[in-house]
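Reading group handout, session on sequence-to-structure problems. Before we discuss, look at one worked example. The prompt was deliberately terse, the way you'd type it at a terminal:

> structure Iron-sulfur cluster carrier protein

The input record follows.
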Amino acid sequence: MATYDELRSRIETLVDPGFKKTLKEVDGIKKLTVGPTGVVEVELYFSKPGGPEEQKFKIDLIKLVKIELGFPGIKVIFSKSEYVDQDVKQIKYLGIASGKGGVGKSTVTANLAVALTRLGKKVGIIDADIYGASIPQILKVDIKPLGGTEDDLMIPLIGEGIEVISTEFFMPRDKPIMWRGPMLGKMLSHYFGGVKWADDTDYVLIDLPPGTGDVALDINKFAQHTKMLIVTTPHPNAAHVAVKAGLGAQQIGHDVVGVVENMSYFLNSCSNKREYIFGSGGGNSVANTLGVQLLSQIPIGQPTEGKYVYQKNEPAGIIYDNLASQVIDLLD
Ligand SMILES: Nc1ncnc2c1ncn2[C@@H]1O[C@H](COP(=O)(O)OP(=O)(O)OP(=O)(O)O)[C@@H](O)[C@H]1O
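And the output record:
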């Protein structure tokens, strides 16, 4: 059986596949002890915990410790590494959440991504709204089998210049999905650790399923510094649950950057007056309760004919461009 020092220095030479650097370089050993019976207990900071990389890494580690170094057993715990590789551009994640379905979260996600692209940013979207995945439709993504990289990362598909990874790509068409929380967690771990985004990607927006539960918690596990944008309509019912989603996100440590009120009003083209069809005040009330800004109020209306997203010269497009520049300030 090897000595403690030998054990430590050999483990330090293992390469973290996400950073492509040794555990020593990324300060990846949190704790390493050898028990009285010789069983090794090790806690590691790892770039991609919970995914296939973790499994492969664990097998290599066990082989090293048991076969090469002669220890009788090993227990390993992985947690997310906070290491920041200065050589690699860091992607910033923004989760788009709502309490209720149907308030326009996917519409806001897609149009915000398009507006960010107009402002010169490179954007990707994780469509994690497994019950109502609609990003591929909104961005007119031509769905086909995904390509992969040599190290088994999925290559996203593209719509409107935006890279998209969606639950829709992995499901039989026109069939309902009946999943429970843990399966969502597995899916998310693949989305966070298993996608090859373009090298110059600035932001990845995550279209979350409606609600306040499992997924926000899971995201916290995979990307602790994910910021959140809350979408609501002006109606008190939507606002009430949006507050819950926002407070839940804040409680587990996410930084809520602001609120978007969608379907705020209808601009009557005859009178040129705003009509508050779905009531008013929801966005402000959510923002005040969460202690953040109401960033945008988006009117009711469809994009110009033949388009799925608002163009830069139409009123909603201008509002989205304004939202995008605020988001850039809030994420930088
Ligand atoms: N500002 C708007 N004006 C008019 N229609 C809108 C607006 N925003 C969204 N919609 C429409 O409302 C419907 C619901 O929008 P969307 O799918 O984006 O909601 P969602 O919150 O993502 O819902 P879910 O989470 O249930 O999938 C869609 O038909 C969309 O086109």
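Points for discussion. First: The pocket of adenosine-5'-triphosphate is lined by residues 98, 101-107, 129, 132, 134, 210, 262-263, 298, 300-301 (CB under 6 Å). Second: The domain at 92-331 is CATH 3.40.50.300 (Rossmann fold).
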